[in-house]
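Thread: "does anyone have the structure for this chain?"

Original post by V.I.:
We have the sequence but no experimental structure in hand. Need at least a predicted one for the grant figures.
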Amino acid sequence: MRIDILTLFPEIALAPLSESIIKRAREKDIVSIEAHNIRDWATGRHKKTDDYLCGGGQGMLLKPEPIFAAIEQLRTPDSKVILMTPQGKPFKQAIARELSEEKHLIILCGHYEGVDHRVIEQLVDEEISIGDYVLTNGAIAAAVVTDAIVRLLPGALGDERSHQDESFSDPNMLEAPAYTKPNTFRDMEVPAVLLSGNHKKIAEWKQEQALLRTLQNRPDLLGDA
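Reply from O.Q.:
Generated one for you, tokens below.
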């Protein structure tokens, strides 16, 4: 898989993608990730990438010219263009799974008040938001989305079953509580069923506890369950 991130802050996008699991996936050539500075496609003496809003309004907007030039240069017949924006559809595990099947993603990062809408009309295939809040720039959001996608690629995780047992693998259920050694810590015990060796009982306990955690923390998920 190839992922190209278009942003005014390439270092911000790449920093969390240069450690741990994602770093190893890149080293094993499971994925190629590059972050490009939109300013590299800007023209003129000042390499201007933003301007005031037509019709008035607060803030600045990313200009269409450098974005069009960048995407037209990077795009291939296999490309899918994603825009990170608070106005996009909520990013969920199911979307990460769908995007992990793509061959090439171009992730465009908004900044200031976003991007000229002609970019969205002509170039963008999908608008994605990582939550109902506003970040300083989309590079942080692009790193989050990239991380979620890459860890689903075959070979990225040490155990291919890892992502199958995580929260949101079932979109209506969180994970059950997890414990490790020591079995007793500050008078707090690991639940006895987890030490019993009875796999049927353990599976039943995990299912029950997953339901309880979902009721406590994310009851909204159970609406469709």
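V.I.: this helps a lot. The helical segments are 10-14, 20-27, 64-74, 93-99, 117-122, 138-150, 199-217.
O.Q.: and The chain has a mean pLDDT of 93.
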